């Protein structure tokens, strides 16, 4: 009797399509004593709605005691599901061509996080068939619609988390739920397996990844790359309120479809990726500055000349500096806070544009990108705060975030 019931539980788990537990609420054709004996022998685990919201998948290790499980089945009033334990699944023949599906077939938890080298994301980042929806602490990988029928649709990671190696030096990895990995094709699972980090315990995933996807909490943090785009939008609105042309010729949205290509976290820390990122910043925040803004008189604002004393046209950064110094009394050094970060971007951009540069792998790139982003955000924030002081710009609503 016990073997037959255990076999039913195992078969249901393996053939359910999603490694579900056998539901036994409102069912009376099983022997309670047999079930209790299977629990005591460590062959099954019982999960109820008193333990988790959805007992139909074995998401995480709940550390439920044998006594607790026995009390649950004796009560019998709450919806519950039975799962075979790894001990009960020792002798099953798994699908060895799918290592992550095999892990679930052997009783692993669906929301176990597996860590991989950040290199795996480059496979998708450099392939125009795929899109990476990056939101800072994690993202989604999916095939573009026009390539969906080419067999690439199985390469879909619903959620990956930005992960890090423990230690003082910033070094990134990527973490993915076992559940998502198990849905990949055999070839793709093998590819991911080849880049699995050997010392899994050396990594941890961004806390916001767990907070949103495992704990169901709202994350109030605002990604700094999105914040910069929103600062640009507010600055242009302030210019309009002051009777000026917009400071930036073009704006972008924070959703992945409207985000500039390459405006994201650097995945693989190479100098090429860093230089490519700086090129994007230069186009967005330096070359994108409109000189028309500086050539219009308005309330308490005087325009600046387009040409210098030699008759040469001034650059956008030079005009911005002259315009700010002429029209604004800042409580900080404008050069240090606003002008220098923009000049830094342009200077870094000019090196690969005029010289042959060797590509190098250097995890210091992560820190370099972070510093550059923080300085740029500081510049956008400072300009927006300065413009808020203009009497006509006070009507512009500043989003709470």
Question: Can you give a write-up of this model?
Answer:
The protein has 401 residues and is an alpha+beta fold. It is built from 13 helices and nine strands. The protein has helices at 2-15, 32-40, 66-75, 99-105, 119-125, 178-182, 186-194, 207-213, 224-241, 271-285, 316-327, 334-354, 364-388; strands at residues 22-23, 44-48, 80-84, 113-117, 130-134, 138-143, 157-165, 172-177, 203-205. Strands 4, 5, 6, 7, 8 and 9 form a six-stranded antiparallel β-sheet that branches. The longest helix has 25 residues, at 364-388. The termini are far apart.
Reading the helices and strands in chain order gives HEHEHEHEHEEEEHHEHHHHHH
Radius of gyration in whole Å, from Cα?
Answer: 28 Å
Mean pLDDT: 92
How far is the first residue's CA from the last residue's CA? 61 Å
Instruction: Give the count of helical stretches.
Output: 13
Spatial shape: elongated
- Let me know the number of strands: 9
Low-confidence stretches: none
Largest sheet, strands/sense/barrel: 6 strands, antiparallel
Tell me the β content. 5-15%
> Which percent range fits the helix content?
25-40%
Q: Which structural class should the secondary elements be placed in?
A: alpha+beta
In short:
With 401 residues, the protein is of the alpha+beta class. The chain has 13 helices and 9 strands.
């Amino acid at each position: 009797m016990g073997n037959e019931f255990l076999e039913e539980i195992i078969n249901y788990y393996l053939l359910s399509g999603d490694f579900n537990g056998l539901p036994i609420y409102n069912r009376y054709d099983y022997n309670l004593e047999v079930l209790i004996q299977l629990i005591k022998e460590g062959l099954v685990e019982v999960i109820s709605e008193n333990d988790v919201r959805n007992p139909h998948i074995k998401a995480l290790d709940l550390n439920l005691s044998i006594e607790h499980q026995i009390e649950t089945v004796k009560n019998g009033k709450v919806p519950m599901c039975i799962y075979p334990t790894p001990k009960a699944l020792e002798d099953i023949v798994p699908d060895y061509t799918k290592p992550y599906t095999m892990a679930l077939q052997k009783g692993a938890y669906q929301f176990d996080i597996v860590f991989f080298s950040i290199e795996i994301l480059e496979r998708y980042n450099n392939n125009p068939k795929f899109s990476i929806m990056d939101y800072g602490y994690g993202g989604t990988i999916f095939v573009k619609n026009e390539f969906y029928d080419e067999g690439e649709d199985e390469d879909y990671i619903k959620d990956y988390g930005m992960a890090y190696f423990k230690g003082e030096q910033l070094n990134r990895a990527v973490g993915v739920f076992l559940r998502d990995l198990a849905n990949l094709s055999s070839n793709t699972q093998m590819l991911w397996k080849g880049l699995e980090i050997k010392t899994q315990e050396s990594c941890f995933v961004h806390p916001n990844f767990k907070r949103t996807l495992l704990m169901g909490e709202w994350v109030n943090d605002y990604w700094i790359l999105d914040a910069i785009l929103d600062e640009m939008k507010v600055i242009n609105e302030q210019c309009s309120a002051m009777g000026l042309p917009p400071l930036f010729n073009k704006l972008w949205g924070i959703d992945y479809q409207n985000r500039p290509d390459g405006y994201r976290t650097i995945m693989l820390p190479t100098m090429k990726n860093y230089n490519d990122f700086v090129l994007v910043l230069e186009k967005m925040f330096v070359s994108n500055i409109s000189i028309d803004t500086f050539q219009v008189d308005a309330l308490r604002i005087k325009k600046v000349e387009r040409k210098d004393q030699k008759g040469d046209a001034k650059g956008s950064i030079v005009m911005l500096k002259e315009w700010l110094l002429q029209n604004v009394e800042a409580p900080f050094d404008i050069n240090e806070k606003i002008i220098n970060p923009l000049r830094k971007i342009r200077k870094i951009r000019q090196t690969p544009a005029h010289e042959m540069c060797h590509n190098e792998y250097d995890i210091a790139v992560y820190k370099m990108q972070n510093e550059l982003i923080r300085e740029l955000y500081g510049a956008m924030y400072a300009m927006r705060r300065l413009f808020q002081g203009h009497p006509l710009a006070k009507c512009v609503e500043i989003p709470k975030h």
